[in-house]
Design a protein that fits this description.
The chain is mainly α. It is built from 16 helices and no strands.
């Protein structure tokens, strides 16, 4: 379900329609980060860099501080949230097509995804809670996006708990993920860690027996990452248990077409830090 829903959420960060809405608010769009931090952090309110760094986890504090809290001097969180929905509306209509956006199958998918999202517990999950607290939009395609967002942040918050339980700090989480072949190390440069910070994390992981001399994961390192993913799945399971196997299977079926449209749009990068589009 994460593989199906994540692209429907993440397309916001890459779509030209979203960059257009960000530019209309006054954000620079020569790079994607001002809009990214504004779109994703707005549900938290006018949060400072420490709170955003904590919630996002894998970004270097200096990278976050370049944009937060400055993004709130351009537009308020309320203005960003309104523009975010406009951006999703335009993006979905461009990528999925008017017939799909206004069709009965997408409305059915939205209703099922909302049921799952409303069953997602938010205790100890700040990003999920912040998005769950927002009012539901009226249009089904916007409901689908908001539900996908709540569910992905619910899963993401649980993933951070699993990383903490595994003793992986933010940069170690990325180094260990790269070490099992999730993506090339250069892909993780977007998170803003310096070469010295990355190398220090590799040494710490090697000292724990999790990385070999060549920087790839040892058997113990692979086992630890597998446990992190298992625990993440476990912590993300409640919404789908509440929705039930039959309705979850139906939602999976309904999401196939929109998923293919987003993946086929070419908007999402072929290699990324999350594994979007990889099955």
């Amino acid at each position: 379900m994460w593989h199906l829903l994540e692209p429907l959420h993440a397309v916001l960060y890459y779509a030209p329609e979203a960059f257009g809405q960000a530019a209309a608010l006054g954000y620079r769009v020569d790079e994607r980060w001002p809009a990214y931090f504004a779109w994703r952090a707005a549900p938290l309110g006018p949060a400072g860099s420490a709170r955003v760094t904590s919630a996002f986890y894998s970004f270097a504090p200096d990278r976050v501080a370049r944009y937060v809290p400055a993004v709130w001097g351009v537009a308020t969180p309320a203005e960003v949230l309104a523009a975010r929905l406009r951006a999703v509306d335009l993006t979905y209509r461009a990528v999925l097509g008017e017939a799909v956006v206004d069709g009965p199958e997408l409305a059915e998918a939205a209703a099922l995804a909302r049921r799952a999202a409303e069953a997602a517990g938010t205790a100890g999950r700040p990003l999920a809670a912040a998005n769950a607290e927002l009012p539901w939009p009226g249009a089904p395609h916007l409901v689908l996006w908001q539900a996908a967002t709540i569910l992905r942040e619910h899963r993401g918050d649980g993933h951070l708990a699993a990383l903490l339980a595994a003793g992986l700090d933010p940069v170690e989480a990325l180094v260990s993920f790269a070490a099992v072949g999730a993506a090339a190390e250069t892909t993780f440069a977007s998170r803003g860690w310096t070469g010295a910070e990355w190398s220090a994390a590799r040494r710490r992981l090697a000292a724990r027996g999790l990385l070999g001399a060549d920087g790839t994961a040892t058997e113990a390192g692979r086992a630890l990452r597998a446990e992190v993913e298992r625990r993440t799945d476990e912590l993300a399971a409640a919404p789908w248990a509440a929705l039930g196997p039959q309705s979850t299977a139906r939602l999976s079926e309904l999401l196939g077409g929109p998923w293919l449209a987003v993946i086929g749009s070419g908007l999402l990068p072929a290699e990324n830090t999350l594994g979007i589009g990889r099955i």
